[in-house]
Design goal:
The protein has helices at residues 12-27, 34-69, 78-89, 91-101, 103-122, 127-155, 160-190, 196-216, 232-251, 262-291, 317-346, 351-357, 359-375, 381-400, 412-437, 443-453, 458-482, 496-524. By secondary structure, the chain is an all-alpha fold. It is globular.
Length: 539
Amino acid sequence: MSKELNLANPSGKELSRSLSNLETAKDHEVQRSRLRSIFIVITCTAAMVVNISNTTSVSISLPTIEKGLAIEEEQLQWLVSAYSLSSGCLLLFFGRLADLYGRKKAFMLGTLCQIAFSLGCGFAQDGLTLAVLRGFQGIGASATIPSALGILAHAFPPSRARSIAFATFAAGAPVGSAFGMIIGGVLTQLTSPHWRSVFYMAAATSAVIGISGLISFDADVPSAEVVKRVDWIGASLVTVGLVLIVFVLAQGDIATDGWKTPYILVLLIIGVILLAIFLVWEWKLEQIIDDDPSRATSFWTPPPLMRLSLWTRAKGRMAVVLVIAFLNWSAFISWSFWVQLYYQNYLLLTPVDTMIRFIPMFIVGCLCNFFVAMVIAKLPLVIFVGNGTLLTATAAILFALIDPSVTYWAFSFPSTVLIVFGADFVYSSGTIFIAKTSLPHEHSVAGALFQTMTQASPIGTAFGLAISTIVFNTVVDTESAKLGVIVNSSDTNAPLSAQLTGYKDAQWTSAAFALMAALLAALFLRSVGIVGRRTQQDH
């Protein structure tokens, strides 16, 4: 019989706060119908679908947007990056606000923000305006996603119902990715407003989600924390630091002198320093508050935005799971990006033809999360995370070995199926682990931290794309030079053979991310045990 690691390992003072929060939750326990519980899960999942589709639907519409608004190709990526930048860099801040002042309130405000700025994007008349509005649109996601995770954790205590709820929520990611590609391709190619229809659809969907949340969500339970204050200094440090780092990762390869450009190096150094200061600041605040809780009322010593002890839960396995999720998401997003470009730029497929090839992601994503919900209470975490990361690596390797002359069913189809299994196994089991390991009063912050490392965040996205883009560009330049071709700034004159080699090596890079994650899972998660069942501690 395998030993199961004790997941929650808080200090005595954290345990005291946790018990206080549990008593408050019991006092406010809501008796709801099964139908309302179902709609809570559907609404939160739909929010994830919209968040992910807001990226993929725009990605597949980029060629049309480029022509419609006459945007320079090297700046086109900011229509995607602006959204992920704001949605990811503000997650911790809005997660903390949701825990303090109400998750339902934060969710509704985020939904209203997405409705307003999605409509604004649909009416934009130039590239700069569209990029700015995309940034504001992302702020809505940074409020809805951590709030949704906190709502689910509060509504469903550790049980099979919670496993099903979180697995369903996780399904929103692959479903959203496929939905975005499908609806983006169809609306862009077959409707008269073309790419603008994508944003109109996002606004309408967000409106339906907002109405459903208003009706189905439980009323907010007052926070049990005595001092309800926000760590504005910490929020500023982490937000600015993340913005600078993500900006550098997105801009470094297209700057005038690439990564040697002076402002790229300066901004990267400043961003890293700000994040280091944030970590030291949060550690200091945690020590001060634990030693003397009365000091939380001082302006200079508010409760920390994110307790660093959160990373050490379950004997440090929390940090391991976060790093694995980060690496696996970097692999997944890089796979998605280069596969889309391979289809449209190398095979010259239309947006609709490209969309059709991603349909298996939608079907397999739903089946995969249903499987996780059914067996998460029977198998240990390492089975899901280890196999999930290996499946992600296998999917990337298949595309790295692809032969363009063979049928879609030989390489592309199995790769598309396996990549979903990998992403969903890690994400579903990871969110359940995070919810079980974190304390009741920090569910939204813990969820925001997990999202910062994965799907709602620019970190994994920017890191994965930055590294794989460097590999792609280097390989294309090298292979083209062997053929006597000097590639121009937009790569439009690169020989097809050089492009194919670049696409393959970019996928080898994706596989390397996933294999590193698999190694971490094998080394550190073997003793975690089963996370999807109620234990003595949960009662």
